[in-house]
């Protein structure tokens, strides 16, 4: 009887180990499938920026390979961009301030990268609005936590009055420093316990190169025409090829 009891106890222990092993395998499989689905889903490039920055012209160049007349839209455009034997989903987000946040929030879960299009001919006049919208993107937890790459694309560089990417970068860093200080002061006034944004380390000016969670690149671009009658998208296309 004692031997039978020992055998039964041993069998029960073996079955328990098997059940635990099966549960561990199932949990691991579920976690892998969740990770895989999220990885597969993130294949979209979000084109965003203010109105009239040239996003839709850029979208047409990438997706349709041609120049088209555009107008301010309150809806997004979507299409496929073939590259390196694969493809990326390009999403042109409306630039109007009434709807851009809604569409950005809708599509950011599938974003693989963000192309922030700037009209380099109007950077001085629009620097405040450009910096504030960019600030909202860079301080978004979803973008930082998923380490989404951001490209600031200085468009309309074929126009003589435009500013190059280096000048735009300097102007944005200066404006973002001012904006961060202002927003931090406002938060402290409302509630001193509120955690400040991580965009700016106390006592330092903002620099894109110091951002730890988000890699920000700058490029010049001409989505319309250059002197030889063709768009200048080589830098952008190379950047996208590294994203695939």
Automatic annotation (TrEMBL):
InterPro entries per record: P-loop_NTPase, Small_GTPase_ARF, SRP_receptor_beta_su
Membrane-spanning parts: 18-35
Gene Ontology process terms (BP): Golgi to plasma membrane protein transport; intracellular protein transport; protein localization to Golgi apparatus
SUPFAM superfamilies: P-loop containing nucleoside triphosphate hydrolases
Pfam families: SRPRB (PF09439)
A GO MF term: GTPase activity
Tree of life domain: Eukaryota
Keyword Transmembrane: yes
Keywords assigned by UniProt, alphabetized: Endoplasmic reticulum, GTP-binding, Membrane, Nucleotide-binding, Receptor, Transmembrane, Transmembrane helix
Protein name according to UniProt: Signal recognition particle receptor subunit beta
Originating organism: Popillia japonica (Japanese beetle)
Taxonomic path: Eukaryota, Metazoa, Ecdysozoa, Arthropoda, Hexapoda
